[in-house]
Specification:
mainly alpha; about 190 residues; 9 helices
Length: about 190
Amino acid sequence: MPLGRSKAGVSLVANIILSKYVEHTPLHRLIQRFARSDLQIPPTTMGQWTKNGIDFLLLLYQLYEKLIFGASYLQMDETTFIKLFYQVEENAKNLQLSADQRLELRLKESKPIFDALGEWLQTSYNLVTPASPIGKAIAYALHRWENMKVFLTDGRIEIDNNLVENAIRPAAIGRKNYLFAGSHESAQR
């Protein structure tokens, strides 16, 4: 059993970790939830179970890391980090947060993800050939890193420029379509 002599089963620890890190439920609330079901779990025990589970996941992570970086060919869905950022933005929008509140939420939830992504990019860049497509992509991101983190300095700044892109899309599509109008008169109609 990966958790040693713990009374907690793997499914319980997995549930605690998912609740804490995916659903963002603090451990004290989980303890209260279990207490309502007549399960009294001391905070130190809950903390130790969480640590043990994370330690086990860290071993898996390290094995995957060796496997992935040892591969001669790598494809990946880089949208996971992006999705996490957009989830924070969606939460801010749904909660109708002010710019200051949105910045506070970003600093709490987006900044750790952003920092981890930056560390990953730095580490990964040292492991790849700079002239390779992934090397060029990482260099591109690192070169623009300071500009990309501006959204972490001001809650009024949008995370992307989708509003502008959506506003100009009809004109851009129209311009493209007008090229194939057939004649000057048709394009004017």
